[in-house]
Specification:
Chain lengths: 286, 585
């Protein structure tokens, strides 16, 4: 904490140059309510129409259970894969100067910008058994499209920018003198990375990976094309909700949705908790 | 010899950021590399630590050649400006890092850590994190960490730069005490001359990649060799004066120099350095106790605690000339004086009061480049000379005075002072002949719109007395970021003894330059005759500055010089030439 922060804490009601706290706060609350709070509350209300005993019945249905299992494991694997390659990409983009660096940098944002359906169709075309890549994998016995593997590929695609963009600023801020210091003290490059760079990047890496995971859990557009949506095999939770909606089972859809919501909340708590713990460990408070 | 830096050069984007630097540092010595930012001092330090690659030269620590070794095998301790502590580790883990890397046993590590923490007066801070420490404490941890593995040398890269003034002085004393106690050979890099004075056994001043001068703090302050060092190490008044066998002459004052400089040939123009504290201010109706040299009036008084800064404007016709700027004489020139409390009590001053000035001590710079005299045929030509890249760079970095002589009719004044500057074109031989006939001994010929030279070639000729030439060359080297090479020209059919002679001449030139000026250069041989060499130079596309050392009688040279160097005066030639005549009487 620097001196400025300490001062602002000591005088919380310091004079503001621009007036209008009441007005802006009012808009903030209204906006957040309309977009976030009320819709979320509505989901709970809708789900509440079903007695609690019936909840388990809905959630424990084999098809729903399989979908949850797939969604969570695929998202987790995709996030972990991204944590490795995202770190690598961020490293290359921050640490090296090469022609085309800006282009490569812009490319990382593509999964953000691309309509997810487009990504889904493109990936399916590539990885389908007769696609550009799929046809070479087929003889090896690897099938990507219409299997859980396809789900992982799609989720890895959309999660990549989260890891890269979270790591980049942290990596750029990382004082290169730290590495130089470690080297003059006798550390080999591997040790420098393991003991100096990695610990400094860990909080950002966890955040980025967790964000990629959260995003993957809720992803719909890009997955449904490549997954093939075979019940019990390659069906993800958002699709289950969609199916229930199409079958006019609004309440059941709301129950599954609320459970996912709780899962997301739990995720957020765990991430924030882990980050806080890391911060405490690395920069113990004054 | 603890640290030996030999001819180290590092080139960045075509410009040498460290340029042929050679230093030898004794065991246990505290050496300070001092220079403005961008002078190459940090680059040199990091090269020594193994953190950056060098393009030429050798580095050795305690007799071990480490030029090719990676940083981790060099055994140096490096301290950074912003501490570079590992923030996720405790103080103990930071200090023990180098020991863990070396797989030292835990008990031994702990013992060593306690020892180091005691050394930097931070006992009991083992379990703190860097963020829980003040800047000064963090830097002390960094020093302890750098010493943990018992390095061969300790390198400090602007270690106090990020601290506030009071902590800075405190930590400076700690570092000095620690260094003395363990007798560690240390190099510190800083841009703060006060810091350098407080810490150094010896100081090396760097500018533009060059090591300008090396010496003890007092020696450099009292007897600088360059204007840059004179001004960088403290305030200095620079005058154009004269050197004769009677001493140094400034206005009406004559003083015996403390040290005889190489330019001390009788009647030569010289740059005189007078420190503000060596100027005595006396009332206009009194007389200074030291040698009086000028009169003027007080323009401003500034309170500075125990001292008083006095700014004095010299009266017209004081006969004193500044060594800087473009002015024609000393009228309106200001002189800075520094007065102690005793002086202030003895002679109270008010702004506007008339005063007489005396000088207690002065020093003549050993540079033959005291001023530049532009010898153009008209104003337009003079302006184009003054705006040439080379002259602008030299004038800027030397702070030398430029005097224009636009009117050829008034050329009959003496031309043996400073450097005579001529435009280089087809008519140059005529102008050269006239200049030499008028006594010009150092003549710089600059082609129109010539870019800044990147290389300087020195042809020492068979000059027996090289000292004048080397004084000139060293002045240029210290103020231009050029790679410098001494060239000998040899016939293809030269005998073995001739070749050895030429080789010896090169080595002698290099040794003399190192001995007298602490600068280094490379050697090169050209096979062929001098005309062929000059023709090759004149057609070269990369900008070169050729320094020609010419011994001989002035009367004969006035005719032979333009003739012998004809290839350089063609319209196609891009080479800038500096003729240095060594007159034989």
């Amino acid at each position: 904490m620097n001196v400025d922060d300490a001062e602002s804490l000591a005088k919380p009601r310091r004079h503001q140059i621009l007036p209008g706290f009441g007005l802006t706060m009012g808009y903030t609350i209204t906006y957040l309510s309309l977009l976030v709070l009320i819709p979320l509350a509505a989901a709970f209300v809708n789900a509440g129409k079903l007695p609690l005993g019936q909840w388990l019945h809905v959630l424990l249905a084999p098809r729903v259970l399989a979908a949850f299992r797939l969604s969570i494991t695929a998202s987790l694997i995709a996030a972990l894969v991204n944590s490795v390659f995202g770190l690598l990409i961020a490293w290359v983009l921050v640490r090296y100067e090469f022609p085309g660096r800006r282009l490569l940098d812009a490319l990382v944002d593509l999964p953000f910008a691309l309509p997810t359906a487009v990504a889904g169709i493109a990936l399916t075309t590539l990885y389908a058994p007769n696609g550009w890549i799929g046809r070479f994998l087929e003889p090896l016995g690897i099938q990507v499209a219409f299997t859980p593997l396809g789900v992982i590929v799609a989720l890895a695609f959309i999660g990549l920018p989260f890891v890269v963009r979270t790591l980049q600023p942290v990596l750029a801020d990382l004082d290169e003198d730290l590495e130089r210091a470690a080297e003059t003290l006798g550390a080999r490059p591997v040790l420098v990375f393991r003991r100096i760079i990695f610990p400094a990047l860990l909080p950002a890496l966890i955040t980025g990976t967790a964000m990629a995971f959260s995003r993957a859990l809720g992803e719909y557009g890009s997955v449904i094309f490549i997954a093939g949506n075979i019940p019990m095999v390659s069906e993800i939770v958002p699709l289950v909700i969609m199916t229930k909606l199409e079958q006019f089972q609004y309440v059941e859809a709301a129950v599954v949705a609320v459970f996912m919501l709780l899962l997301s909340f739990a995720m957020m708590f765990v991430i924030n908790g882990a980050q806080l713990a890391l911060q405490r460990r690395h920069q113990a408070k004054q | 010899m603890s640290i030996r830096i030999e001819q180290v050069t590092k080139v960045y984007q075509g410009v040498p950021v460290v340029n042929d630097v050679s230093i030898e540092i004794q065991s246990g010595e505290f050496f300070v590399l001092l220079g403005p930012s961008g002078s190459g001092k940090s680059t040199l330090l990091r090269a020594l630590a193994g953190l950056s690659h060098i393009d030429h030269g050798r580095l050795s620590l305690h007799g071990r050649d480490v030029t090719e070794l990676p940083a981790r095998e060099r055994g140096v301790g490096l301290v950074f400006q912003h501490y570079a502590l590992f923030r996720h580790m405790t103080v103990a883990d930071n200090i023990e890092f180098a020991l863990r890397v070396r797989r030292m046993r835990a008990a031994e590590r702990r013992r060593r850590r306690q020892e180091l923490l005691q050394l930097v007066a931070l006992e009991g801070y083992d379990d703190r994190y860097p963020s829980q420490l003040s800047g000064g404490q963090q830097q002390r941890v960094a020093v302890a960490r750098a010493l943990a593995h018992e390095p061969a040398v300790l390198l400090l890269d602007e270690p106090f730069g990020a601290l506030d003034a009071k902590i800075r002085i405190e930590l400076r004393e700690t570092v000095r005490a620690v260094q003395r106690r363990i007798g560690m050979t240390t190099i510190l890099v800083t841009h703060d001359q006060e810091e350098a004075f407080a810490l150094a056994d010896r100081i090396g001043v760097m500018q533009m990649g060059r090591l300008l001068e090396i010496g003890t703090p007092e020696d450099l302050y009292r007897h600088p060799a360059t204007r840059f060092v004179a001004r960088f190490l403290g305030a200095a008044n620079l005058f154009l004066g004269e050197v004769s066998q009677h001493g140094l002459h400034l206005g009406a004052a004559t003083l015996t120099p403390e040290r005889v400089t190489p330019v001390a040939q009788s009647g030569a123009e010289a740059v005189l350095v007078v420190r503000p504290e060596d100027i005595e201010v006396a009332p206009s109706d009194g007389a200074p106790q030291s040698r009086p040299f000028a009169a003027g009036f007080v323009r401003a008084l500034t309170f500075a605690g125990h001292q008083q800064h006095v700014s004095i404007e010299l009266a017209e016709q004081s006969g004193v000339q500044p060594a800087t700027g473009n002015g024609h004489d000393g009228s309106g020139m200001t002189v800075d004086a520094l007065r102690s409390a005793a002086d202030q009590a003895a002679v109270p001053l008010t702004v506007g009061a008339g005063v007489k000035l005396g000088v207690r001590r002065m020093h003549a710079l050993p540079t033959p480049i005291s001023s530049f005299h532009l010898m153009a045929t008209d104003g337009e030509e003079a302006s184009s000379l003054a705006e040439s890249a080379l002259l602008m760079q030299l004038v800027r970095s030397m702070q030398a005075r430029v005097i224009r002589h636009d009117d050829p009719a008034q050329r009959n004044e003496r031309m043996d002072a400073g450097i005579c500057v001529l435009p280089l074109h087809a008519n140059t031989p005529t102008a050269l002949r006239a200049a030499v006939a008028n006594g010009a001994r150092r003549i710089l010929c600059i082609p129109r719109s010539a870019p800044l030279p990147l290389r300087m070639l020195i042809h020492a000729g068979d000059t027996a007395r090289r000292s004048d030439l080397l004084a000139l060359v060293s002045s240029v080297m210290r103020h231009l970021p050029v790679a410098t090479t001494a060239v000998t020209v040899q016939r293809a059919e030269a005998s073995r003894s001739e070749m050895l002679e030429a080789q010896r001449l090169l080595l002698d030139t290099r040794a003399d330059l190192r001995g007298a000026h602490g600068l280094d250069l490379r050697g090169e041989r050209f096979i062929g005759d001098r005309t062929a060499w000059l023709s090759q130079l004149s057609t070269q596309s990369d900008p070169v500055l050729v320094v020609m050392g010419l011994p001989g009688r002035m009367s004969e040279l006035s005719a032979s010089l333009p003739r012998d160097h004809a290839p350089l005066f063609t319209s196609a030639s891009h080479a800038t030439v500096l003729f240095a005549i060594d007159p034989v009487s």
